[in-house]
Design a protein that fits this description.
Largest sheet: 2 strands, antiparallel
Strand content: under 5%
Structural class: mainly alpha
Shape: globular
Distance between the termini: 98 Å
Low-confidence stretches: 1-21
Radius of gyration: 32 Å
Number of helices: 34
Mean pLDDT: 90
Strand order of the largest sheet: 1-2
Number of strands: 4
Length: 839
């Protein structure tokens, strides 16, 4: 039977007035296979992190190729199944507003490259939402999707624990045939365990502990739900056996934010349970956490030791401890569900019907949670059961810690950014492109650590309201249907609610949804929530066939467009990868540029291909131009001009890329265009106010041009140039002083201070104006013992000249300088002899 006939056969079944997908549909099963492959493939591609560079893009483009195929299959299915009958059917169409608002923001994008990437990602999200709607229209599809989410999650947990307990090589061989492994070390998944100032932190596939913790919140509450909803031992067992390892992994992430978020999400979940299930959930989760705490110190110590010194016996010991704790909890969980659950249901049945009865226990849990938090955070001794690294992290949970203060700064800066692009935003990747312009202090963070604010600056109020309105509408449809539905029907889709709430809540304090894998899961879950919801019918004046087939037709067209674009982008990435391989083996210009030019033709204005990558077209052109200057100046000039043309194109697409801005400055300096270089550096300082390089260039160029004016006896220009350079210096001093106002708990980020080069320029200005004491005082703190450093030697020259102008000297320093280079005496005398005081 053909796919179309199967799809038509699927349209025969109906439930609650909404056409459903039958298991007889071939397309349905193809979609199930694609979803399953995605669930197991995507996490091991660094969870499809949207890092905004060549290194991260390939897997996202590959996922976009597959999602476009999925969208085409859905379009075929929708042609037979979809009818615009209910309000929720309208919502299935309105998901396309998300990519549309990102397309609109392209007209205002800070980075064309990052913004177009986000359009493709938003299309992938819309595809997964529609996929969720169609896959879960029947019980079988819903069960399969829920199982895929849980089982793939368990696999990720076991993968992380294999690395923690010293079995990383085995884990690498297990997934190395399809996972994105470390290119320098075969069968090593990079940063499955990361190290920072807090020590070792488990990250599994995410390479970022906080996001892994967010994923574990989703997984632990999903497991808990499957435990408390069943009395069958064989249903409870697999989830109970995994719950303790999940919670142990949660502790090993050392994520303070997740520790704060998990009780919030847990309480939200409780409000949707009957009283008996609330009690069961509290007992089961409490026992699982207790079991994890009993073994946590030992598992932590074993894992830390195994990262330093591999040991098979220690590894087996760690697994044995984990297994025993899991088995003990599983037995208790099964006994409670088999014997305790029926009893609880009987004694609480009469309370379930009473208004607000289900609110009592969650509120009581909040009180108990607050008391528990006070006991753990106070000096009562309760926290001493925790390992030292976990205890330290919990002790540091307060609003004055560095990470909280830093996030607060991010959020304020994001609001400043948004206020300049309020309606349609600054396009995808706006925060990564523009945050340096708005930052309060010189931190480095290409993520705003808040999904809502990052979405707001990217898509503006228009896009943000579309997203919020969409999510709220799905929630309203789901909750209304949940209240009216039977327990069986509630349970069928509740996992999707847990996934949605967990990811959305934690993403308010971190960048979890910059992982396209998690974003896809979120939209898949939203689709699953909507599909089984009931909504009011819509009244259409026309029953035209074209009206109902328009949506599938749009999906088909979009799928073909996305397939073509995504395939081109994957091909471009392959060509660039080929370029990197050629460079390792050959220095032949033609061999190198052939695949590179192909990559650029397929993906124009790509920053990495043109400038910022390991090998770039502009870099190659400038290198050849430099080589040709002596042999054939005309050819050298031609190569330089070609590089400038490409840079001009890149500047139009990436006007806020700091590396592009610096390259333009360097090319102006290469050509000796000092005035243009000065104007450029001054124009860029407001865009990068915490990068000292622009200030340095501005001051040095200002003084060079002032000296040129002096030689022409142009006093007005001379003084203006010096005044402007001095104003730049004072701006730096003011910024340095402002950093003193940061809370003592908050690190300032990158170093930002007066450099020796700037001190030299400021001292020169003072000297030129006859303030010799000021010149010496400015320069002296920046003098070092390193006489091989050219800038240091120039500093010493001007310092000694300033001293001599005051009638004093530093004979020891002068002797050292002359011993290094006797010509330095003449250099100092030349400075002293120069008349800088124009009349």
């Amino acid at each position: 039977m053909s796919a179309s006939k199967n799809a038509y056969a699927a349209s025969r079944a109906k439930a609650n007035g909404t056409i459903t997908t039958e298991k007889s549909s071939v397309i349905f099963w193809i979609l199930v296979v694609f979803t399953g492959l995605f669930m197991f493939w995507a996490p091991f591609q660094r969870a499809l992190f949207n890092g905004g560079t060549y290194d991260f893009e390939r897997t996202i483009y590959s996922a976009s190729v597959w999602s476009s195929i999925i969208l085409l299959l859905i379009a075929i299915l929708a042609f037979f199944l979809f009818k615009l009958k209910e309000q929720k059917d309208v919502l299935t169409i309105l998901v396309l507003l998300m990519p549309l608002t990102y397309v609109i923001s392209l007209s205002n994008s800070a980075s064309h490259y990052l913004a177009t990437n986000m359009v493709y990602i938003q299309m992938l999200y819309a595809t997964f939402f529609i996929l969720g709607v169609f896959l879960t229209k029947n019980k079988l599809g819903t069960s399969i999707l829920a199982s895929l989410l849980i089982i793939s999650g368990y696999f990720i947990v076991l993968f992380g624990l294999l690395y923690w307990l010293g079995n990383g090589n085995f884990a690498g061989h297990l997934v190395g045939w399809f996972a994105l492994m470390d290119p320098n070390t075969p069968y090593l998944y990079r940063d499955a365990i990361m190290t920072d100032s807090n020590g070792l932190r488990l990250t599994s596939v995410f390479q970022y502990a906080n996001t892994y913790a967010a994923f574990l919140i989703t997984l632990s509450l999903g497991s808990l739900f499957f435990i408390v909803k069943s009395r069958k031992w064989y249903v409870v067992l697999p989830h109970a056996i995994m719950l303790v390892p999940i919670i142990v992994s949660f502790w090993l992430t050392l994520s303070r934010g997740a520790i704060v978020v998990i009780p919030v999400v847990f309480l939200i979940m409780l409000f949707f349970f009957s009283i008996s299930r609330q009690i069961l959930a509290l007992i089961q989760f409490g026992l699982a956490f207790a079991a994890s705490l009993v073994i946590l110190q030992k598992v932590t110590d074993i894992g830390i030791g195994l990262q330093k010194q591999p040991s098979a016996s220690e590894s087996w010991n760690g697994w044995l401890i984990l297994l025993i704790a899991s088995v003990v909890f599983s037995v208790l969980a099964i006994v409670i569900q088999r014997l305790g659950a029926p009893w609880l249901e009987r004694i609480t049945a009469r309370f379930d019907s009473k208004k607000f009865a289900t609110f009592i226990l969650p509120i009581a849990a909040i009180v108990v949670g607050v008391v528990g938090a006070i006991l753990i955070l106070s000096d009562t001794g309760f926290k001493n059961i925790l390992p030292d690294n976990v205890k330290t992290r919990i002790e540091n949970i307060n609003f004055q810690q560095h990470s909280v203060l830093e996030r607060g700064t991010f959020y304020k800066d994001a609001v400043k950014l948004w206020s300049d692009y309020p309606i349609i935003g600054a396009g995808g990747g706006a925060w990564a492109s523009l945050y340096e312009k708005y930052q309060n202090n010189p931190y480095t963070s290409r993520q705003a650590h808040n999904f809502a604010l990052q979405y707001l600056v990217e898509a503006g109020a228009l896009g943000f309201l579309a997203f919020i309105g969409f999510v709220i509408a799905v929630m309203v449809f789901y909750i209304r249907s949940y209240i009216k539905s039977s327990q069986e029907k509630r349970d069928l889709h509740f996992l999707f609610f847990i996934v949605t709430i967990s990811l959305l809540v934690h993403s308010m304090i971190d960048f979890d949804l910059s992982y396209v894998y998690l974003g896809a899961i979120l939209f898949l879950a939203l689709g699953g929530m909507l599909s089984n919801s009931t909504s009011a019918p819509i009244r259409l004046k026309s029953d035209s066939l074209a009206l109902h087939k328009m949506f599938p037709a749009v999906l088909a067209v979009l799928s073909i467009i996305m397939f073509y674009i995504s395939a081109q982008l994957v091909s471009a990435n392959s060509s660039y990868k080929q370029t990197l391989e050629v460079v390792k083996k050959s220095q032949d210009y033609n061999q190198i540029v052939a695949p590179l030019d192909k990559a650029i033709s397929l993906h124009p204005a790509h920053p990495d291909y043109l400038l910022t990558g390991q090998v770039s077209r502009i870099g190659i052109l400038l290198q050849v131009s430099n080589q040709m200057q002596k042999e054939d100046p005309k050819k050298g000039e031609a190569f330089f001009n070609q590089a400038q043309d490409l840079l001009n194109q890149l500047l139009k697409k990436e006007p806020h890329n700091r590396m592009v801005a610096m390259q333009q400055l360097n090319m102006l300096l290469i050509k000796g265009n000092k005035q243009e270089a000065l104007d450029w550096s001054n124009a860029q300082i407001p865009n990068y106010p915490w990068y000292i390089e622009m200030y340095e260039k501005s001051m040095s160029l200002g003084i060079d041009l002032a000296n040129q004016a002096r030689e022409k006896n142009n006093m007005q220009e001379y003084n203006t140039r010096l005044d402007n350079a001095l104003a730049t210096y004072k701006d730096v001093l003011a910024r340095v002083d402002s950093l003193k106002n940061l809370p003592k708990e908050q690190a300032q980020g990158r170093a930002f201070a007066v450099t020796p080069s700037m001190a030299l320029n400021a001292g020169q200005i003072s000297y030129m104006r006859g303030d010799y004491a000021g010149a010496a005082a400015t320069i002296q703190p920046h003098i070092s013992e390193n006489l091989d450093d050219q800038t240091n030697r120039v500093l010493i020259r001007w310092y000694l000249a300033a001293l001599q102008k005051q009638g004093t000297k530093d004979q020891a320093l002068l002797d050292k300088l002359i011993a290094k280079d006797p010509a330095e005496k003449q250099n100092i005398d030349a400075i002293i002899a120069t008349n800088f005081q124009l009349k």
